[in-house]
UniProtKB/TrEMBL annotation:
It is found in: Cell membrane. This is Putative membrane protein. The keyword Transit peptide does not apply. It comes from the Bacteria. Belongs to the resistance-nodulation-cell division (RND) (TC 2.A.6) family. MmpL subfamily. The chain crosses the membrane at residues 12-31, 177-195, 202-222, 234-257, 278-299, 311-333, 365-385, 530-549, 556-580, 634-657, 663-683. Residues 701-722 are annotated as: Disordered. It comes from Embleya hyalina.
Amino acid sequence: MFGRLGRLVVHNPWKVIAAWLIAAIALVMFAPKLSDLTNQDQSSFLPGKYESVQAQKLAEKAFPQSTEQTALLVFKRADGKNLTEADKTRVKEITGSLGAAGVEHVSKVEAGAAKDRIALGTAYIKGEQQDKFVNEALKKLRDKAKPMVDKTDLKLGFTGSVAINVDNEDAFKKAEAIVGIVTIVLIIVLLLAIYRSPIAALLPVIMVALVSMVASPVIAIVGKATGLQVDQSLNTILIVVLFGIGTDYILFLLFRYRERLRAGDDRKEAMIVSVERVGEAIASAAGAVVIAFGAMLLATFGSFKSMGPGLAIAVIVMAIAALTLVPAVVSLIGPKVFWPSKTWQHQPKGTAFHRIGGLVGRKPVAVALVAGVVMVAFAAGALNFKADYDQLGQLPGDTESAKSMKDMQLDFAAGTLNPTQIYLKSTDGKPIDKGAAERFALSFKDVAGVGDLNEAGEDAGGSHVKVSGDGMSAEIAIVLKESPFANKALDTIAPLRDFAHAHQPEGTKAMVGGQTAAFTDIRKATNRDLSVIFPVAGLLIALVLGLLLRSVVAPWYLMLAVVLGFVSTIGATVLVFQTLAGNSGVMFMLPVMIYMFVVAIGTDYNILMVARLREEAKEGHEPRQAAALAVEHAGPSIAAAGVILAGTFASLMMAGIDMMTQMGFAVSVGICISAFVMSMFLVPSVTALIGHAAWWPGHGDRATGPVGRGDEDRKPVFAGDR
């Protein structure tokens, strides 16, 4: 099949290129934009069965203003001294003026509590968290506030959910720009070092840029048709995925093309044979990645469910391009793709990969043991894994929302940023008994982790209970001692819910809502999703491997190697960020990110190595010789792809966002483990040890004929052969 595809593309290159250009132009001009589907609100990705979502629905109906987006105004003196009574009066004047400033979508700005050094205010903005006009409203409010404060002794900063989102938005835009530039420069530099050719270095960048013009609109079309929301980090990750995986596939093809030119094939035949030989490996590798991403549709947490299919679509488009667009372009350029280097004209002797292959072939037991010990040593760190849900801690520390959050904590509990709401809903058809609800509210003061109770409002007369207009619902705001996104705060929600359910007034139902409760439910959903996605994806990937290799033996030890690589990556990340850096945990989405990239890419490298190993076996080589030759000939492309992909993901560490730093480190380390420990040493040495049994029952390693042309010269020389 891939031979026929290769001939079709090579003999009709201009038609293939024209089809891609027309598709790219049409999609850019007429398709929706991916950014239009972006959603910043993690809690909106939860399904309706969770209590925080049910509480949110009740609040939207009974307390519409409570569901408005809020920004916290944090006032302090510029000289750091205690606030004077005049300062506190000025705070009330400023908040009143801001409320009357007529900023669109801002329904109200009111002064809040004032203590020794800090005074607070709250701005209410109509709209959903993902609505772009909400962020714009806050920016306009900031602009209005600045001249009001400049002529006073006060300093004003904004924090809270909307302010965090604004800083998030700016930080992610900067991250996209940095990652995009660094990724392109890194790929060009590394490819120049590998091929010593500007054409070969620029080719992947140009090809992937064109593919991205097609992939993003296709994702947007599918998302709009299916109502799919997109997590804000997808745009940044998509850049890395397309350039990383795309460069991998192009490298696999170019390495085989150069090999066929060295074997004496003409330019067109060399490309046809390359597509035929590498096509199955690329298609299978892409299939494994798509399955890994597609399995995320099984998630209950919508952020995972939306990111997986989006990336799967991008990989499909990239794989199609690697087997059509790239061969078409290279077949036109021919050997000049490697200009001015002439290394494509001769096979180098005594390379590092020749020596590594010889080592694997001679001492597979020792190689397998050393590789396994290295991976297990890293994996030990995973025993201390803790997930971190603190979105404030993931932002750069110099953002306004982060600084204002620290200022607020000089006088107020960290939970003031996002109070936790307790809702009461009448279940007997009678209005809420406000006295019973007040006693219920006061009882929470003795619950561990609760710092304070908010008053219901300026006109509440000291009451902590807000009753809905129809009298059938009530709202109580609780301030937790810990930061609302910290694990300690999340840990208080379960006992808080147990207490609320056990002490709810007769004839009512209590529900705990708010951001902290939502992230507690996100944590629960995430843990459930990981327990479902991992085994399902593993079985499906093993099936792909089985179909590719016609074996029921090899897929299992290949998947075990990938699982070990996954755990090793988590362990290395925990060692660096928790043990050495002293963080309370690592980003809660990190296991999924490592799963998507390390498991999927690790399987890619395994497929390429084992496919080449089987190919060498079919040429008549015994298991150890086949393993040695596979490392010698597939090793350079895997190593080059691993370095480029690891470097591409490492560029995320320059984004200035903690979650991106952790993701960049984890995935780049995981790819290095996959490429240089697992695929280069562990998998070929284990395959050599298992021997012909690795291919049972299909026996895909059976020689299809006599040793081919020039293959005698390619046999590795073992110590006993001299």
